[in-house]
Structure formats: structure tokens, C-alpha cells
Amino acid sequence: MAAIAAVVGGVAKAVGGAVQAGQAHKAMRSARNAKNEAKYKMEQAINDRRDITNPYAGVTDLSGLASDLSSQISNPFNNLTVSTAAAEMQAEESDIALANTLDTLEQTGASAGGATALAMAALKSKKDVATSISEQEAANSIKRAEGEQEAQRKQVEAKQKYQDTLIDQGQRVQDSEIAGEIFQ
Q1: Is 165 domain-assigned?
Q2: By the 8 A CB rule, do 148 and 75 touch?
Q3: At what angle do helices 112-183 and 85-108 cross, to 10 degrees?
Q4: In sequence order, what are the residues at sequence separation of 6 or more whose Cβ sits closer than 8 angstroms to the Cβ of residue 171?
Q5: S-S: 176 plus which of 56, 66, 103, 183, CB 3.0-4.6 Å?
Q6: CB 90 within 8 A of CB 131
Q7: Enclosing domain of residue 120
Q8: Structurally, how many domains does the chain consist of?
């Protein structure tokens, strides 16, 4: 009986081991099927998703639209002229007045001292006319210099603005390229 019990115990052990092996094999097949199903679903999700596009791909560099306008800036006071018409008219009026005075001196028989005084008045009048022209020329020189200074300042500003535009556009394009790479 002990032998029978040992055989029955051995058979029970063998059957139990076979059952256990069968269960393990079934669990392994179930895990493999679950893995294959998960892999299929993942591949399907990858294939079904929309393509990721770079929203910044169409960004273009607009710096070509910028232009350097500094060469168009000029000194508006560069060609100022002196008005001699008023000075000439003043000189003519002085000459006429002096001629009239000389005629009066002749008719009244005035002395040579009166003629000398008249000549001095004519000289002073001519000096005043020359001074007027000289003042205009000096004022024009100052305006020319101020105009040149302003034109140069505006040229520098225009060149700086042009350079800033080129740099800004280049930076914008680079930022867009970087942002697009990050987005993707």
C-alpha cells in the first residue's frame, strides 16, 4: 500500500506539474497576444495620426524689402543765394537822393564842405549796402552748415534704421526656424 500511495502521489505530482505547466503556457500565450495587440494598436495609432507640420515653414526673410534711403538725404540750404536786388535798390535810391542833394547844393551855391559831406554820406550808404550783403552771406553760411549737420545726422539715422531692419528680419527668420523645429 505504501507503494500504491507512492505511485498515486507521484502521478498526482506529475498531473499537478502538467496542469501547472499548462496554465503557465496559457498565461504566456495570453501575454504574447496582449503584447501583439498593443503593438498593432500602437502602429495603427502612428499610421492614423495626422502629419506634424512646421507652422513656421513658410516664414520668409523680408529684409529684401528694406532699402537704404540715406543717399536721398541732402542739405536743403546748400544752394542759398544772396538777394542783391534790395541792396541794389537801396544803393540806387541813395545815389538819387545824393544827386538831388548835390543839385540843391549847386543851386544854392553851397560850399565845398557840403560836397564833402555829401560824398561821405554816399560812402556810408555804399558801406551799409555792402554790410547788408555780407550779413546775408554770413547767415547763409550758417544755414548751410546747420543744414549739412542735420543731413549727416539723418543719413546716420537712416543707415542705422536700415541695418536694424536687416538684423530684425534675420533674427525673426532664425527664431521661426527654431520654433518650428521645437514644434515638430
Answers
A1: yes
A2: yes
A3: 170
A4: none
A5: 56
A6: no
A7: 63-183
A8: 1
CA 158 – CA 69 distance, rounded (Å) = 6
Identify the CA nearest to 176 among candidates 58, 66, 53: 58
Q: What's the full length of the chain, in residues?
A: 184
- At residue 93, what is the residue type? E
The CA-based dihedral angle spanning residues 126, 130, 131, 135, taken in that order and rounded to the nearest 10 degrees: 160
Residue 135 lies in a domain: yes
What nine digits make up the cell of 178?
Answer: 527654431
Q: Is residue 156 part of a domain?
A: yes
List per-residue pLDDT tens for the chain, 184 residues long: 666 666 556 655 666 666 676 787 888 888 899 999 999 998 888 888 887 777 777 778 777 777 887 887 787 777 767 666 666 667 677 777 667 766 676 667 665 566 666 667 666 766 776 777 778 888 888 888 888 888 888 888 888 888 888 888 888 888 888 888 887 6
Can you give the pTM of this predicted structure? Answer: 0.45
